[in-house]
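ok so for the tutorial part 2 we go from a plain amino acid sequence to predicted structure tokens. step 1 is just haveing the sequence, like this:
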Amino acid sequence: MKSFADLLIAWHAKSGRHHLPWQKSKDPYAVWVSEIMLQQTQVTTVIDYYNRFMKKFPSIKILAHADEEEVMQLWSGLGYYRRARFLHEGAQMIMQEMDGHFPSNYDIMMKIPGIGRSTAGAIAAFSFNQKKAILDGNVKRVLARYFLINQWTGLPKIEKKLWGDAESLLPNKNIAIYTQALMDLGATVCNKKPLCDTCPLNKTCLAFQRNKVHLVPVPRPLKKIPTESTHMVLIKHHDEVLLIKRPQGGIWGGLWSLPQYENKSMTAKVWVKKHFGLETSLIQKDLKASTTFTHYKLDITYNVLEAKSQHAKLPHTWLTLNSLEGAAIPSIIKKILLKL
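step 2 — the prediction. this is what the tokens look like for a chain of 340 residues:
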């Protein structure tokens, strides 16, 4: 009987994905960028971002020397902006501490910001042909069904078991093909709407054999996320809007956003006059928007003001509304601005 790995490798030759842009190179930098972009993001979404990013920053050296603003602009709309900062910081670390060469040592890889066990495993397998396991969301789903794991895969003890399973299945050769095959199977066959009849593992998959595929993986225990609220001001002057850069810590770190204020004892006009020195007139009041993060929902109430001039105090920038597409702005703020 063929092994788990042999079945996957044979399936991949006929049915796997072979034309993704990052598959053209074994360069660890290219693999690293793709793996970071693919975290919690669909392949179809990533492709265009990856191509633009690699065209602008084709090497670790060029990325390391880039201005953070440039990096964040190219990431705008992809979400989870911390990933972009980690790439930028990681490139700088490689230039400063590793002589500009991406490390081949698995343990040293994980010292680079944003690289965890699974990302390091993927880079080690694809770029250095090392026998290392991966365990991203797709792979967790495949293994949870294959071994019929009846508990949420995010539990520490279950994750530990899955790592053991993933390592036990590794082949002694063709590690890069196997790793890609495992990713592809999870993305295209063993996904949220599984195509079990076409799966190369269905003869030995416990969930399929016991008719329990629909029950696995076990969903995350329901937990009501809290709602937080904030007030913002949208200050415009003709076809330009005033934006401020968010502090590095917290949400949207390093991105341009609307000014945020929590002082309910004064009106938005008075607050803007006090902080920016701008005379304004109120255009619209108490408009609503909301966005959801991993751990909470944010409700935004905002007022639209028209400024009489652009001579504002405090660090800021004025951006024309037709320049929004390439700007480093959070998606929810971009949606608010597009309503103008």
